[in-house]
Amino acid sequence: MGQMINFDSGDERYDGYLSTSKNGKGPGVIVLQEWWGLVGHIKDVTDRFAAEGFTAMAPDLYQGKKAELDEPDQAGTMMMALNIDDTAEILAHAVQFMVEREDVDSERIGVVGFCMGGQLSLFTACLTDHIGACVDFYGIHPNVHPNLDELSAPVLGFFAENDHNTPPEAVRKLDEELTKRHKEHEFHTYPGTDHAFFNNDRPAVYNAKAAGDAWQRTLAFFRKNLAEAKSA
Description:
The protein has one domain: Rossmann fold. It has six helices and eight strands. It has helices at 40-51, 72-80, 84-99, 116-125, 168-180, 208-225; strands spanning 3-8, 13-19, 28-32, 55-59, 109-114, 131-137, 155-162, 185-194.
């Protein structure tokens, strides 16, 4: 359904995977990768959004590099090597790219990410007021520190009960930080699930029931918060 595209800042050119709404145009959504890179699963999620009426794009934060799903050490190394300043530039230009598209009809853009991308989703929502809704699937990256004071979008978070990467203590701390700042947010922790329970390319951790529930909640959240059409 989708295709690889280029978007640029004038000085730099970036790659991404774009899927246009089945309706020809729809609310815009940015999809952010796990630590594996812009792999088939992330492209599939982007296509799934398009099939639901959104225009979705997944920027390639590793700029062409990928880790194999059976090489978590390689993925971890790539995640830790991520240049946060450069990534912030990619994210800002990805959002601007979506805002300006004719096949995006929402006033503001949604952002959703998984694992590393979950933390980057929150980071993106704190970078720009073009974000109208943020979804964080078990976000983790020790070097990414969202400026929560700048957050204006509502946040929906999904977490796993048995997650050593994003443990319950980290989820509670984030909840407390958002509450202290009076930031609108809603968190769900799924009993008996592991980190990356949404990734159906990883049968060892995938949980169909939790993933299905989180997907429906995500769609409803975006439809509610991205309903405002662009100004004429």
